[in-house]
Request: fold
Amino acid sequence: MSLFSLLLYELRHLTESVYIVNLSSTIKLLRNIFNSLDQMLSIAGNNSFLYDFSRQFGFRLLAVSILLWACIASGSSVAGEIVSLEIGKSAYQIELAVSPAQRRQGLMYRQQLNSRQGMLLVYPQVGDHRIWMKNMHIALRVYWIDEDFKVIGMQRLQPCSNSPCPVFSAPRPSRFVLELGDYDHALGPDDRVEGLAGF
Reply:
């Protein structure tokens, strides 16, 4: 097994419970680096180096360190806190985008969302909060929510492949934007979303 293969095995386990933006680019970067290292080790004839290193120093610690470095080097970022929200009678795992950088990044480059995952864009005040689907790989159902936690607008949006990408907003000022995968959800206009009072 190559050095890259072992690292990738560890990365897959590390990222099962964490969203990594643009993971595919990170993996490509790591593959290039570690394929070169594998070639150097092979030329040196030191095939036992990898396994000795793994036993003595702990390969998982190395994987964590490289993952953090690669996320910075490839322009990726680890997403925000995950909270549980009840929508209808189902519990959703919702990622919070609270900072301006997190809201700008949104769900760009994500490869998938399951039917009970999403992102909540939290704004410090009510306003005309707009989104677009640039650099999106998945379709979304987007809900604008006012300061009383009521849904005031909903749109079903597809990834944007043209330039410039259109911009979407609610018919009146909102405080939150909830982005869910393109599935049926028990949520519609005038419904209240419970659990937002602390944001």
